[in-house]
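Q: I'm writing up a methods section and want to include an example of the input and output format. Could you take the sequence below and give the corresponding predicted structure tokens, formatted cleanly so I can copy it straight into the document?
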Amino acid sequence: MSESGIAHSWVDDTARVDEVIDAAIDAGRYAIDTEFHRERTYYPALALVQIAVGDDIWLIDPLAVDIGALGRLFATDTCAVFHAAQQDLDVLTHAVGSVPQRFVDTQIAAGFLGYGTPSLVALLTGELGITPGKGDRLTDWLRRPLTAAQRTYAAADVAYLIDVWDRLAARLDAAGRLAWSDDACAELAARQTGPTDPDNAWLRVKDVRTLKPRGRAVAREVAAWRERRAMRLDIPVRQVMPDLAVLGVSQRVPSDVGSLGQARGVDGRWTKGAIADEILDAVARGADADPPELPTGGDDLDRRLRPAVALISAWVAQVAKDEQIDTAMLATRADLVSFLSDDPDSRLRSGWRAELLGDGIAALVSGRAALTFEPGDRSHRGGLRLVGIDPVG
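A: Here is the clean output for your methods example:
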């Protein structure tokens, strides 16, 4: 079955937004999606909000209405149904000033049922037998008016989302995993949304770990200046100054315009007038500051335990396969490093992850268990298996 010509309403006045909100609150849940661009701006530019309640679908034009009105809906316990919510939450944080207080995510839910980070198309096909029409993925959603095909494509993103969720939720409940999905959505809700803290922007500079301590201090100040300027002008960070230039300036630590111009990656745009003064001021602040510490990570793990990460990763992949859970959802490399570093807040130390992995990893590292490979056959699925080792007295 394929979809075509999905009925929907175009909303371009704030009074009708209130009607949509009231309908969603009365229903107790709604499907939601967004279309946005961020190629030419620092902040994501919201271009469309799609909301579905029952058989009604509304395409809300944020270029014509006060989209902040959705804050009234988000403040209630009305359940929002997203697919792959992370970017939508970031966009809504900036555009509306808040995100739904309560939400579920079909991509997360599907990850506990054998899907590996599925697209919405994969879920519609797999769960409902619907093959969505192909849309133009390079659509300029900020252009008005949108074509009928563009509107239909946008409406399809929410038209079946609640039906998909109901099917997934029933399967999760039967498998005893509905609470796992809720926990994963709570983890997503707790992640930072919105712009980067300028004081931490240096951590996103490529190859910043190669800098010496003084260079890191300069990189912190220059990257913070770059971030704030990008915010102020609402342009991408790379248009203010690319990472290569940040590294070049940080390595050279220039004290005047002449030496600034000799830093790798720096061109004439940054050696004239007020912008040159701003960069040199940032360099001077960094040169006089205490160097920041590099955050702990995989390279900081005790050398004796580093081989364990590769071994445990292989076992985690096997557990994910056996349990039909998306491996990335079960445990990332960062989760393994956190656990092995005795981080009390490691995700593997509590909840369903601890049940599936925590005890086994602890046993492996302590030598109380080992991994063995069992070849499979027609009646027995093989793979890596955890086996206990009797202590040697």
